[in-house]
């Protein structure tokens, strides 16, 4: 049965999106798919999961960090056998993150980076779920800006997003 939740974040509401992203990626670790897509014009190596209390130690490996950054979580997902595809703008702002993720995921067949100068979409799409909306995967987008993010599971739009991304960037399964 399809489920959907829209969350509006920002300082005025006191809500942040980092925990939503972190929780979605934990779900992907527990039930990995073939491909995880992260599509965003602007992307940084933001904090996505607070593990300071050790709540996720059993999931995060032998030396679990107290704070997980996006590159670390994506590397863990890739280690399950999932291919991580990142589509972003060819902009110096994104370079630091792309260097971190390239260092974290060394197996070339597990990481694909697409630089698209027309990128404006903001989506994270995994195995049976999609998170899409106005939020870039940056500190401002996930913490300070007022954003709207919709999270869907069990919806045909998830499969359609995977099909569309593969076709757009000529990605094989």
From TrEMBL:
Domain Phospholipase D-like: 95-169
SUPFAM superfamilies, sorted: Phospholipase D/nuclease (SSF56024)
NCBIfam families documented for this protein: DpdK
Protein name per Swiss-Prot or TrEMBL: Phospholipase D-like domain-containing protein
Protein source organism: Planotetraspora thailandica
Lineage of source species: Bacteria, Bacillati, Actinomycetota, Actinomycetes, Streptosporangiales
């Amino acid at each position: 049965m399809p489920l959907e939740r829209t969350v509006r974040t920002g300082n005025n509401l006191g809500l942040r999106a980092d925990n939503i992203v972190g929780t979605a990626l934990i779900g992907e670790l527990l039930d990995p798919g073939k491909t995880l897509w992260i599509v965003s014009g602007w992307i940084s190596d933001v904090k996505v999961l607070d593990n300071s209390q050790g709540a996720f130690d059993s999931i995060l490996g032998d030396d679990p960090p107290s704070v997980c950054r996006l590159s670390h979580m994506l590397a863990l997902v890739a280690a399950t056998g999932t291919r991580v595809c990142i589509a972003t703008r060819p902009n110096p702002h994104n370079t630091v993150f792309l260097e971190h993720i390239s260092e974290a995921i060394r197996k070339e067949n597990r990481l694909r980076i697409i630089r698209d100068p027309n990128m404006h979409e903001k989506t994270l799409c995994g195995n049976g779920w999609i998170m899409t909306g106005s939020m870039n995967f940056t500190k401002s987008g996930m913490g300070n800006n007022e954003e709207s993010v919709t999270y869907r599971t069990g919806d045909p739009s998830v499969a359609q997003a995977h099909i569309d991304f593969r076709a757009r960037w000529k990605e094989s399964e």
